[in-house]
Amino acid sequence: MPQAIEGSTTANDVSPVKSAERTVKILETLAASPTRLTLSELQERMGYPRSSLHALVRTLRELKWVEADETGSAFGVGPHALLSGTAYLDRDPALRFAQETIEDLRGEVGYTIHYARRDDAHVLYLASRESRDSAGRVSRVGRRLPAHVTALGQALLAELTEAEVDALLPASLAGLQPNSITDHAALHAELEVVRKRGWAFEREQNTPGVACVAVAVGYRIPASDAVSCSMPADRATPDHVQEVADAMTRHVTALARTLRHEGIR
């Protein structure tokens, strides 16, 4: 019977629980990458043994959760990953009502409207209605961004206590743009403003040229979902931002009331 080389790890050495965890992490790593990754790049990012990665990626390819490029050496998520994400959206009871709200808001303010849910230290985009002059932009549905650099995330982080925010976020806050908040003290100061004002505002913290207003949807305590409005940064004057925030507060308050009335928690 062949003997494993001392110190090496084979796919058979991995427990079912660890194998399942690695499988999920592989999919998350591929989903987060803007380009396909080779096995070497996956190993570098994840630190897993190459033999284990190779076996898991091969199985995921056979099941169509992962697909390869024409050379068979670089990998990305496959079509069956989309089936899982679509099923989540189809079964979410709040989304049907949220879709109506963001459609109405887009019609009133004319800008791109997003609906998102906090996913630990990130926000996950669940629905969007693009402004009529945003042709060619890629939808954010299914994408995740760090909560601390988005108005959506700041609106939802403001629902938590300072201690809860510190426990949730990493010690080092990564910045996506020069305007990104990367200091915990500065973030806490901004979240206190959000709590007092009732809505969040960020300018070019994650996307150049874009400013964003967001309001938490209060049908859960603490709120898990929020609605945002993205506008050109040069249009985000104090008066106009307040006008948009007032419209959003009105619509989002009505949405929260409807969700509670429908028994959705």
From TrEMBL:
PROSITE patterns: HTH_ICLR, ICLR_ED. Keywords: DNA-binding, Transcription, Transcription regulation. SUPFAM superfamilies: GAF domain-like (SSF55781), Winged helix' DNA-binding domain (SSF46785). Residues 80-261 form the IclR-ED domain. Residues 17-79 form the HTH iclR-type domain. InterPro entries: GAF-like_dom_sf, HTH_MetabolicPath_Reg, Tscrpt_reg_IclR_C, Tscrpt_reg_IclR_N, WH-like_DNA-bd_sf, WH_DNA-bd_sf. Pfam families: HTH_IclR, IclR_C. The keyword Metal-binding does not apply. SMART domains: HTH_ICLR. Signal peptide: none annotated. This is IclR family transcriptional regulator. It comes from Actinoplanes palleronii.
